[in-house]
Amino acid sequence: MSESLVMSVVRQAVEIAVIVSLPMLVVGLAVGILVSLFQTVTSIQDSVLGFLPRAAAIIAVFAITFPWMLRTLTSFATGLIQRLPDLVR
Fold first, then answer.
1. For 45, which DSSP code?
2. What is the maximum alpha-carbon separation in the chain?
């Protein structure tokens, strides 16, 4: 297996990981900013108030996007398994 082929497979794996995790990261960032603004405006500095909405939003986005994530990861794994004879040479 050549070095360029290994780098190509690793690059694809990293791209898939970023693409799959991006919706949850973006929603977590947006909710975190909104909660921080709310805490600043109201002068409420409770750590639970900063954590719970962000966790709930991330879990909700995960539940909504899970079928898409599963299809994406399954297609990547299927393609990798189908290319396995070429990769071993």
1. -
2. 63
Task: Kindly give the residue spans of alpha helices, DSSP state H, lying in the chain.
Answer: 3-42, 47-82, 84-88
* Range with the poorest average pLDDT among 10-19, 56-65, 77-86: 77-86
Judge whether 2 and 88 are in contact, CB under 8 Å: no
Domain ranges of the chain: 3-88
Q: How far apart are CA 66 and CA 71, in angstroms?
A: 9
Burial of 67 (0-12, 13-18, 19+ CB in 10 A): exposed
The predicted model scores a pTM of 0.81
